[in-house]
């Protein structure tokens, strides 16, 4: 038993020597979703607080991201979140992909799958009230429809 505790203890210390990379990619405001769509600040703030932690290059890392394995867990979500949808580089997406990502965003928020529960735990301000949820669903739909209209794209099946 003592040996096991000792191994666990030194294991926990050892993994602290493998921190995550917390450097954000260079800011690209000219490609940022909220900027290019001139999102009203009230709506923009909701999206920034509840989605930008993982779906942008503007991640603010909490202090506990310095503690492993928590940091590894957070970084995994951020890497995967950015890969699937990065609002910071939204302008580089083809119109069809933009419309699709907005449809998915709406669906994820409707189903309460996003923001991830584990994120809300550490960021209470990211929790959406019913009014905020309705507001960003409406906004994602509005921009999706606009994108489809301007680019002659059919509605999503
Ligand atoms: C804690 C990090 C985190 C936060 C905050 C977060 N997401 Fe995600 N999101 C992820 C991860 C990880 C995935 C991929 C795994 C999955 O689908 O569950 C994902 C997947 C998605 C997808 C699917 C993309 C695809 O191509 O499949 C959409 C859309 C999405 N998120 C939208 C949002 C929106 C909108 C918000 C804010 C209301 C948000 N997310 C908040 C981490 C996050």
How would you characterize this protein structure?
Residues 9-144 form the Haem-binding domain. The protein has one domain (20-150). Helices cover 55% and strands 0% of the residues. It is an all-alpha fold and 157 residues long. The protein starts with a helix and ends in a 7-residue tail after the last helix. The longest helix is centred in the C-terminal third of the chain and has 21 residues, at 130-150. The chain has helices at 2-15, 33-36, 41-51, 70-84, 95-110, 117-122, 130-150. α5 runs antiparallel to α7 (130-150). It contains seven helices and no strands. The structure holds heme C. Heme C (HEC) binds at residues 50-51, 53-55, 77, 80-81, 84-85, 101, 104-105, 108-109, 114-116, 119.
Task: Assign the structural class, choosing from mainly alpha, mainly beta, alpha/beta, alpha+beta, or little secondary structure.
Answer: mainly alpha
Q: What's the end-to-end separation, in Å?
A: 58 Å
Mass-distribution shape: elongated
**Mean pLDDT reading:** 97
What small molecules accompany the polymer chains? heme C
* Helicity level: 55-70%
Order of helices and strands: HHHHHHH
Q: What is the domain tally?
A: 1
Domain Haem-binding: 9-144
Pfam families: Haem_bd
InterPro entries: Haem-bd
Protein name: Heme-binding domain-containing protein
């Amino acid at each position: 038993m003592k040996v096991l505790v000792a191994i666990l203890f030194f294991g926990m210390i050892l993994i602290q020597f493998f921190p995550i990379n917390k450097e954000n990619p260079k800011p690209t405001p000219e490609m940022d979703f909220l900027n290019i769509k001139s999102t009203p600040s009230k709506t923009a703030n909701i999206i920034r607080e509840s989605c930008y932690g993982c779906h942008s290059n503007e991640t603010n890392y909490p202090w506990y991201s310095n503690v492993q394995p928590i940091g590894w867990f957070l970084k995994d979500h951020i890497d995967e979140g950015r890969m699937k949808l990065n609002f910071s580089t939204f302008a580089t997406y083809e119109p069809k992909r933009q419309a699709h990502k907005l449809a998915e965003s709406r669906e994820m928020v409707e189903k309460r799958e996003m923001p991830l529960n584990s994120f809300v735990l550490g960021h209470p301000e990211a929790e959406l009230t019913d009014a905020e949820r309705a507001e960003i669903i409406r906004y994602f739909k509005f921009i999706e429809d606009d994108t489809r209209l301007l680019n002659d794209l059919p509605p999503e099946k």
